[in-house]
Amino acid sequence: MKLTIHYGISALLGGILLLGAAPAWAQLAQRGTRTDSGGINVTADKLGVGDGGSQIEATGNVEIKRQQTTIKADEVRMNRTTQDVEAKGRVVLDDPEWKVKSAESVQLNLEQETGKIEKGDIFIEQGHVSMTGRRLEKFAGQSYHVDDTFFTTCICESGAPSWKISAESMDLDSQGLATIRNGYFYILDFPVFYLPYGFFPLKTERQSGFLIPKIGQSTTDGFRYQQPFFWAPSKSTDATVAVDIQSRTRIGGWGELRTIFDRDSDFRIHGSYFNEGWRKGAKDAVVDRTIADQDIPKNRWSVIGSHRYLLPSQWFTYSDFAAYRDDLFTRELVERFDLPVNKETQIRQSRFAESRLGFFRSWGDTHFRGEASFYQDFIQKDETTLQRTPQLSLWGTRLVSGFPLEFRWRAEGTNYLRRDGGDGLRLDLRPEAVLPFRMGSYLQGFLSAAPRETVYHLYSPVKSSRNVSRELVELRGNVGSSMSRVFSWSGSELRAVKHVIEPELSYLFTPRIDQSRIPIMDGADRVNRRNVFTLGLANRFWGKFVNPLVVFEKEKDVELVNPLIGADVREIASLKLALSYDVDKERKGGDSLSDFDVNLRITPTNYLTLAFDGGFNPGPWNITQARWTFGVSDPRPITRRSLDADFNRPSSINVNYSFLRRGPNGFLSEDANIDLDAPPSCASRPSDPRCPGTAFNKSIVGGLGGSVFYHVTDRMLFFATASYDVRDASFPGYRGAVKLLSSCECWTLTLSLNHSMNPAKTSFSFDINILGMGTQKGGLQ
Q1: Which domains does the chain carry?
Q2: Closest CA to 757 of 336, 281, 288, 250
C-alpha cells in the first residue's frame, strides 16, 4: 500500500508541474527574446538611464509594461543588452499565462531562459496551479530546482486549500525526470502522509500515474472500487488499466491501449476480464426471459477495438471488432469501462455486436471495397445468424462528355455463412442510366432505367436448386421545383425570413417477379412489384440573425466592409410532407395510399428545439408511428468559467416521446424467439399470436423520456434522466446525480443513483475528481 500511494502522489505532483511550472517559464522566456520589437514602457518615481541607454534603473512604484506583461516592484534594474532583469521589493508580475502574486525578488535573463524567484507566490493559469517556494530556479535546457515549495490547484481567497503538496526540494532535469525529497501530502493544513523520496518521468503533455479511484455502493454488487492507472510511454501512445472490485459479485479489470501512427492511421484495443465467483443467484437477476442465452458464466471477458491505416499505395484498411463472452455482458458490465454516457448507452441498447475487417480504394469516380463482417446476436441464437464473409463491392458514376447522360454502376458479391440454416453466395449487378433534365427556370428532374441481375449459389438448398437467379428492371422518374421569397423582419436580432417551397413528384416501377425459389439473406432478396407515385412537399424557413453585440455598428456612418460580420443565417423551421399512391392496389380495390409522413423541425433560437416525426394512416386516420422531442436551454451566457466541463454547460430540459403501432409481425418485438412451427405454449409465451385471448395486441413502443440539467447554485448541479414505459406503466431505468464544486474550485464530488433493467440493478455511487489534473470531462449526460 505504501508503494501505491508513493507513486500515485508522485504522478499527481508531476501533473501539476507539467501543466504549470515548465510551460510558464518557457513562455516567459520566448516572449522575453522580443523585448525590443515589442516595446517597453517604464514608469517610476525615479528613473535613471546609463551606459548609453542600455542600463535602466528605476525606484519607487516601478511599473514596466511590455505587450501583455506587467512587472511592478520597488526597485528594478534592466540591461537591454544582456536581457537581464532584476526586481526587488513587493514584486508583482501580471501575465495572461502566469502571475507572480508576490515575491521578495525576481531575477530573469530573457535571452538564456534562466531565472530565479525568491520567496515567491506564483499562479499559473493553465491548470489553475498555485505554487509558493523559498527559491525557484530555472537553468538552461529546461531544468529546474525548487526549495521549500507548496503546490495546489485550489483557488482560495482565504483559508487553507483543500489539499496541497509540499517538498523540501525538487529537481527536474532536461530529460524530464523529476526528483522530490522530504515531501508531504496535506489535506487542509494537516499532513496526511510523508514522502521521503520519489522520482518520476515528466512528459510534455501527459503524465503516467494513478488516476482518482471510483468508489460506490450497489444493492446488487455491494461495495464497488475501481482503481485506474494511466501510462504514457510516448507522445503518440498511451494506455489505461484498471482493477475493479465489487464485493458481492465479481473481481476483475480492464485495459485499453491507444496509439496514433499519423493523421490518417490509428489503433485502439480494449479488453476486460471479470470473475463472478462471489455472485449468488445470478439467474434471478435476469429479467428478460425472451433472449436465447440467459446464462451468466463465472468467467466473463470482452475484446473491443478498431484500427484505421492508410498505406502508401492509397489503399485504406480498417477494422472494428467487438466480442463478448455472454449475451448479457453489454447490459451489465459496460458501465465499468469509463465510456462517455452516449457511447455507453449505445452499446447497452444494441441488439448485436458487429465486427468487421476491410479495405477501400478509390480511383476518381470508381470505388472498391472488400469487407468481412461477423455478428454476435444478443437476442437470438448465434447459430442462425448470417455472417458476411467476405463482401466485395464496386461502384461508381461517370458523365457522358457533351451529352446530359450519366452512367452509374454497382456490383456486389457476398458470401453468406451460418451454422444453422440456408447460406450461399450472391452476386448482385445493377447498372443504371440517368437522364437529368430542366424545363424552364423552375422545373428540374431526371429519368432513369436500371436493369438488375441477381445470381445465387446455395450451399444447402431446401426448396430450390443449388443455382438460381433473378432478373428485373427498375424505372424511376422525378420532377421537382423550388420557389422562395424573402420577408423583412423588424426584430432586435431577427432581420429577415426566407420561405422556400419545394414540391416534388416521383415515380417508381418494378415488375412482378417470381421469387419463391430465392432464399432470404437480407432486404435485397425481395423486391416486390411497385407501380407507385409519391408526392412530397417541403417548406423551409431560414432566418437572418444579427448578433446584438455588433448591432451598434449600424449606428455609425461607416459601411461594413463585410456585411456578413455579426450575421448568422440558419434554418429556423422546416415541414416535410409525403404521401404515396399505389396504382396496382387501386386497380385491385385495395388500400392504395401509404401512410402520410410528417417531418417537422422548429428551431427559432439556438436554445429552443421542437421536432416531430410521424406517420398517419389516411384510411381510419390513426397514428401508426410517432416521435417528438422538445428541448430548451438557458440562453444566458456562462460568465463564470470552471475547470469542470459540467459547470460550463447551461441549464436545460429535454423531453421525448415515441410510439409505434402494432403490425402483423409486432409480436416479434416482444419475443423474437417464438417458434411458430412448435405447438403454442400460452402460459410461458403469452405474446404468441396463436394464443386465444392472450394474443399480443399492444402497441410495440410507447415510451416517454426526459432529462433535466440545472444549476442550483454556482457550486451545485442537479441532473436527472428517466424513461417511462406508457404501455406497461413502468420505469425501465432512471438516473439522478448531484455534483458539488468546492469553494476553492479544486475538486468536485458527484453523488449519483442509477437504476437499470435486464439485469435489474440499483446502485449508488460517489466520485471525487481533483481539478487541474489535465483535461476534465463532463460526466453528467
Answers
A1: 2-38+96-210 (2.60.450), 387-594 (no CATH), 613-661+700-781 (no CATH), 663-698 (no CATH)
A2: 288
In 158-275, the DSSP E strands lie at: 163-172, 177-187, 190-201, 209-210, 214-218, 222-234, 237-246, 250-262, 265-275
Written as nine digits, the cell of 749 is: 464530488
* Inter-residue contact 602 to 610 (CB < 8 Å): yes
CB atoms within 10 A of CB 719: 21
Hey, CA dihedral for 197, 203, 205, 209, is it positive or negative? Answer: negative
Name 146's Cβ contacts closer than 8 Å, sequence gap at least 6: 21, 131, 133, 135, 136, 137, 167, 169, 170
- Distances 231 to 22, 211, 384 between C-alpha atoms, Å: 20, 10, 42
Instruction: Provide the residue count of the chain.
Output: 781
pTM: 0.72
Residues 358, 374 contacting (CB under 8 angstroms): no
Average pLDDT over all residues of the chain = 82
Cell (9 digits) for 48: 535613471
How far apart are alpha carbons 125 and 113 in whole angstroms? 20
How many other C-beta atoms can be found within 10 angstroms of the C-beta atom of residue 647?
23
φ and ψ at residue 512, rounded to 5 degrees: -80, 125
- Distance (Å, rounded) from C-alpha 180 to C-alpha 149? 11
Radius of gyration of the chain, Cα coordinates, nearest whole angstrom:
34
C-alpha 357/C-alpha 370 separation (Å) is 8
**Cell numbers for 406:** 450519366
Whether the predicted pLDDT of 774 surpasses 60: no
Share of the chain above pLDDT 90, in %: 35
Cβ(8)–Cβ(14) under 8 Å? no
Identify whether the C-beta of residue 682 lies closer than 8 Å to the C-beta of residue 705.
Answer: no
The C-alpha cell at 227 is: 482503481
CA atoms of 458 and 120, how far apart (whole Å): 81
How far is Cα of residue 109 from the mean position of the Cα atoms in its chain? Answer: 45
Q: Which residues in 563-660 belong to E strands, given as ranges? A: 567-582, 596-605, 608-617, 622-633, 652-660
Residue predicted with more confidence, 324 or 3: 324
Which secondary structure element, helix H or strand E, spans residue 150, and what is its range?
strand 143-152
